[in-house]
Amino acid sequence: MSATSGTSRSAEAPDGRHPGVSHAVLLDTLWASMVSLYADLTTAAAAHGLTYSQAKALNVLRQGPAPMRSLADTLRCDASNITGIIDRLEARGLVHREASPTDRRVKNVILSEEGAAVVARVRDGMHATHQALGALSDDERATLDSLLSRLFRADGDHS
Q1: Which residues form a coiled coil (predicted)?
Q2: pTM (predicted TM-score)
């Protein structure tokens, strides 16, 4: 990448400090990371007869039951798409739906024991991602976790 495009990386300065990295470089790095993660998750999910979207839904449900609307919002898809995803997962016994205790019109999706086991196997099967993360030291993994958590907070507050 050329220096004129704003996407070049600068070498470490003699004093050990890193000069600023452009947003363009960071966007390229994040994009490449997302592509690699997507490919790894897609491959691991397929090994268990799941699509990428089904694996993402199971992964979200690891955190607890979720209303169908919330799942659709989290997965960035419309309600009819999430219905199809959950229908297929439910047919395999990986999730089940039940009425919300506070609003009977709302259906919560709950991960079954088998669903939890499958999503754990999918995550374990993400070999390229595990290899990349394994190349980091404990301190580097903690720093990465902190930075990503700060950048991509679920509540949208990026301060």
Answers
A1: none
A2: 0.80
Distance of CA 29 to the CA centre of its chain: 16
47-125 under CATH 1.10.10.10, yes or no: yes
pLDDT tens track for 103-138: 888 999 999 999 999 999 999 999 999 999 999 999
DSSP category for residue 142 = H
Tokens of 44: 């691991």
Give residues with Cβ within 8 angstroms of 13, minimum separation 6: 19
Under a CB-based contact definition with an 8 Å cutoff, are residues 107 and 91 in contact? no
Q: Where are the domains of the chain?
A: 47-125
Could you tell me how many residues make up the chain?
159
The three-class DSSP label of residue 99 is strand
